[in-house]
Structure formats: C-alpha cells, structure tokens
C-alpha cells in the first residue's frame, strides 16, 4: 500500500460539505483515510477576486498507481459538480496529489510532489498538521520546516 497526501479545496457552495463529500467518495472508491487535517479558511491564491477557500489535507492508503489515482480524483471532482474554469479560478472542489510515498514524478499529466507546495500556505498548514515530519523528496526539508520558512 502507498501512503499518499491529498490536498482538498473548495470555494463555491457549501465549502465544508463539498470537502466532506469528496472524502466520502474517496472512501467509496476504496481509499483508506488514515489522517485528516482540520478545515481552514484561506485567501484565494493566483486569482484574488473570488470567494475564500476551505482547505484541508488527507493522508490515505491506496494500492493505486499515481496515474490511476489522478484519474479517480478527476472523476470525483466531476461527480462533485466541478466545472471547467480558469486556472486558479473558483471551484466546487479541487483534489490534488501532494505527495505519494517518496516518489518524484514528472509527466505531461502529473507532477509529484505537487509543484509549489513550499510556497503555498494553504497547502503547508493542513499538511503540517497531519505530517509535520514528512520530508519533501525534492527539497529534502520537513513539511514543518517548509512551513516555518
């Protein structure tokens, strides 16, 4: 089984329920949620003129390979009502693979670790809550250390 960290965000509709629904759908699709952060309200990143986000992070166990998991996350986003939008625009739900074991992967479709983790407080804060000692496989620093910077 692989240990994977998933970032969840929502800024449209009932943001908390959107996150909870995504977690239920992950479980229904065979994921085991082993840790979950609290939900935090955060300012939008990239495009500022939009509602605030609710963000959180999960630690899951899965037998899925990264590309399979990515496709599942996209399917859950669609099932949850996510519509195509501009980059960094508003969304009902956003699910991202942040870390996957200690894997470093870059394909046209997927980059692991998720790019920009170290610059995004809305990712680091919930991730540090559930995995403070986890080491970023590229930057070679713990999530706790990245958050301090």
In DSSP terms (H or I, runs of 4 or more residues), the helix count works out at: 4
| Helix-residue proportion | 25-40%
Low-confidence stretches: none
User: N-to-C terminal Cα separation, in Å?
Assistant: 32 Å
Just give the CATH class: Alpha Beta
What overall geometry do the principal axes of the alpha carbons give?
Answer: globular
CATH topology-level fold name: Alpha-Beta Plaits
Per CATH, which architecture? Answer: 2-Layer Sandwich
Average of pLDDT:
91
Query: How do the SSEs run, as a string of H and E?
Result: EHEEEHEEEHH
User: How many DSSP E strands?
Assistant: 7
Structural class of the helices, strands and pairings? alpha+beta
Q: What number of domains?
A: 1
Q: How would you sum up the major sheet?
A: 5 strands, antiparallel
Rounded Rg: 14 Å
Q: What amount of the residues lies in strands?
A: 25-35%
CATH superfamily: 7,8-Dihydro-6-hydroxymethylpterin-pyrophosphokinase HPPK
Question: Can you walk me through this structure?
Answer:
This protein has 149 residues and is an alpha+beta fold. The chain has one domain (2-115): Alpha-Beta Plaits, CATH 3.30.70.560. The chain contains 4 helices and 7 strands; from the N terminus they run βαβββαβββαα. The strands form 2 sheets. Strands 1, 2, 3, 4 and 5 form a 5-stranded antiparallel beta sheet that branches. A two-stranded antiparallel ribbon has the order 6-7. Strand 6 (105-106) and strand 7 form a beta hairpin. It is globular and about 35 Å long. 32% of the residues are buried. The model has no long low-confidence stretch (mean pLDDT 91).
